Amino acid sequence: MSTDGQLRFSLSERKAGSMSTPSAGNTVSVSNLEDFNDAVKSVHKTDSPTNWLLVGYDGSPDKIKLLSTGTKGINELIEHFDDSSMVYAILRVVDHVDNIPTDRFLYITFIGDNVKAIEKAKYSVNKTSVTKLLGHYNVEIIASVKSELSETEIMNKIQDASGSRNRSGDAAPTLRISTSSNTPTPSSSSSTTSITKTSGTTSGSKGPAVNTKSVGLIFNNELELKQIVEQVKTSSDPINWMLIGYEDKERLGLVGKGTGGLQELVSHLKAQNVNYGIVATTDVIDGIIQPKHAQITFVGVSVSPMVKGRLTTHRGKIDEFFSPIHVSLFSENPSQDLTDEILAQKVQQLKGMK
């Protein structure tokens, strides 16, 4: 988990750049608010040359500031990451769905390997507020090393979410990000990062690389749990959700499974617990019902900051366990941020709809 390795992660579209954002976690403010708001608007604007922004903490766990913006995509962005910092970024790329270019937005949380546990605890405490400030995104990645943010891994994640990736049994084509050959200026036309296919191949069923080298996380009856995940992902199976939770610090077990969808899953969530799950839903594309799958991360409001800090070392392995999925939902207060409406909005956003 980015120690998080990714994902994913992802709430409904919100208005970006509020001065403060009350939530179940901390309220985070922005020190250079005007510049921050301009950057958020710019990165979400298709014809803007700015295709990424980066924010970090400004001397206080409750205050962030805009650190930088850029026009050259992920490779330029990760130059600003280092192993001792925790930063947040929005990256705009272009996916091609049925040969139609469509903007996609990636929400990146980078928590360096040398960040102390007490600092990592900020991630879970401030998650909701920072997310609201940064606004709309389609895919979330939480990473601890730059290698987790390669162009290929990002493109795979984007195309897995949109459904534009090769879904045949053959190896999927390698994807790369290309940027405009012209040097962008504030008055230039769009320099949005775009995706093109190359002739290389990858192991199509393999998910994104994740950082699990120091994680001792164990899944009780792992084979059975994976079989349940596959049930959820099988359209003809009545099981449409499953939930796992901690049995001790490093061990996860089955909490429940069922046929009642998201709200039945939500009924098993308690404020003092941390849970991960998957739920099946559907979307209609050109009159055809398409299955979609959402990964759920729930961190109850009564979970201590120390425990929240430890969770960051588990996220990569959790994401690997559920991968591939279409959307991610993070929740602290299910009645507000884990509703059927929010899930439907996230699925619609895969098509560029609100």
From TrEMBL:
It is found in: Cytoplasm, Cytoskeleton. Its main location: cytoplasm. GO terms for molecular function: actin filament binding. GO terms for biological process: regulation of actin filament polymerization. Residues 177-206 have a biased composition (Low complexity). SMART domains: ADF (SM00102). One of its GO terms (cellular component) is actin filament. Residues 160-208 are annotated as: Disordered. Keywords: Actin-binding, Cytoplasm, Cytoskeleton. InterPro entries: ADF-H, ADF-H/Gelsolin-like_dom_sf, AMP-binding_CS. The keyword S-adenosyl-L-methionine does not apply. Residues 27-159, 216-348 form the ADF-H domain. Belongs to the actin-binding proteins ADF family. Coactosin subfamily. This is Coactosin. It comes from Dictyostelium firmibasis.
